[in-house]
């Protein structure tokens, strides 16, 4: 929970409500080992992802596929490992959160 609190504060997000719940889900699914909301860690910052896909009507489907299947080359040579354990529902929630930033 301390990681979630620090992440929310650093990103200027509310300490309660949907953002906190989305970050708790991201932690549960292992996303926070490589991503943060506002700065590059191993993978890109989620705010950068949101900016890149702003206005792209197909962004949600593209990112859901990327999370599920993995890949590389969109943000350099670092590999996005496939997430084979998260439910489609949880991936969709996380992608919607990222795109909302």
Describe what this molecule looks like in 3D:
This protein has 101 residues and is mainly α. The chain has a single domain, classed as Cytochrome c-like domain (Cytochrome Bc1 Complex, Chain D, domain 2, Orthogonal Bundle), CATH 1.10.760.10. The chain has five helices and no strands. It has helices spanning 2-11, 18-28, 46-53, 59-69, 88-100. Helix 2 crosses helix 5 (88-100). It is globular, with a radius of gyration of 13 Å. 19% of the residues are buried. The mean pLDDT is 89.
Distance between the termini: 21 Å
CATH topology: Cytochrome Bc1 Complex, Chain D, domain 2
Strand element count = 0
Helix segment count? Answer: 5
CATH class assignment:
Mainly Alpha
Taken from the alpha-carbon principal axes, the silhouette is globular
Helix content range: 40-55%
Integer count of domains: 1
Q: Gyration radius, to the nearest Å?
A: 13 Å
Q: Can you give the mean pLDDT?
A: 89
Biggest beta sheet attributes? none
Uncertain ranges: none
CATH superfamily: Cytochrome c-like domain
From the helix content, strand content and strand pairing, which structural class follows?
Answer: mainly alpha
State the CATH architecture: Orthogonal Bundle
The fraction of residues assigned to DSSP E strands is: under 5%
Topology as a string of helices (H) and strands (E): HHHHH
Topology:
Elements: H1 2-11, H2 18-28, H3 46-53, H4 59-69, H5 88-100
Helix pairs in contact: 1-2, 2-5, 4-5
